[in-house]
Amino acid sequence: MNIAVVGATGMVGTQILKVLAENSFPITNLLLVASEKSIGNEIEFGGSKHAIISMEEAISRKPHIAIFSAGGDISRAFAQQFADAGTTVIDNSSAFRMDADKKLIVPEINANELTASDKIIANPNCSTIQMVLALSEIQKNYGIKRLVISTYQSITGTGVKAVRQMENERNNEKGEMAYPYPIDKNCLPHGGDFREDGYTTEEQKLVDETHKIFNDDTIGITATVVRVPVVGGHSEALNVECNKPFDISTVRKMLADTPGVVLQDNPDMNIYPMPKYSEGKNDVFVGRVRRDFSIENGLNMWVVADNLRKGAATNAVQIAEYLVKNKLV
Fold this sequence. Notes:
Strand content: 15-25%
Number of domains: 2
Number of helices: 10
CATH class of the largest domain: Alpha Beta
Largest sheet: 8 strands, mixed
Shape: globular
Low-confidence stretches: none
Mean pLDDT: 97
Radius of gyration: 20 Å
CATH superfamily of the largest domain: Dihydrodipicolinate Reductase, domain 2
Strand order of the largest sheet: 3-4-2-1-5-6-8-7
Distance between the termini: 9 Å
């Protein structure tokens, strides 16, 4: 299996390589692509050093799978070129997520929709992935009427520039700013770009992507995205209004039995998910599961995951594993 990783030196690209190694993904040839200034530099993988090559060379070598994590502009410019060469592209950017002819995949939920003809496959937004995985069985069994989302998102979702900003602030040093305000000891209700309706692009992604993954545009969804000075992962407070009545103990068991979800819900022992402890892990952690008594069929939960792992790298590698296992590449 010949695999290309586009954006191999970035925060998500680095995690993709770690997950490929941890999962013993069957790689015959590994092609690493990054910016032009990185060409020729070497990255160690699987006990060997691999030189970074150009995009053009990677396309000419026709890998079976190319995992993209280099931003939407790069994906729009080169993903189709890989696809035209016979490569199946798994794209981490927002470039293709809402294209009607591209599938938006969280493997535990809808990988069975994939076919060999899907040459560009979209990875959802990190905050969407963890949320829909936590909600998937609830949607399947009770239906979701309305969803109110408040996120507490790690600065790693913005990238290395944001991490450096926080480190500089903590060290009382000046440097390049990823945000218009300080992030350390602060919260910014500003994820993505502001739209004319007052919502941000990150908030709208949660709406649009959830509708597409669940194949249900009737769900009422509203979101507020907040960046917090955390590096371990994204956290979300979810308020769910179901279409049908539910038993709270059944919901907890349902969550505990969901593949990829770990239930951490014992308030008497102070057990609940936290981003500090999700870092480096591939699971989605759910806790604070409780009934919302203010509405009929209301449910509250707290969802945490490493946004660089299940929110990006792990989900992409799981898609690749599904393609290989089912002989779709």
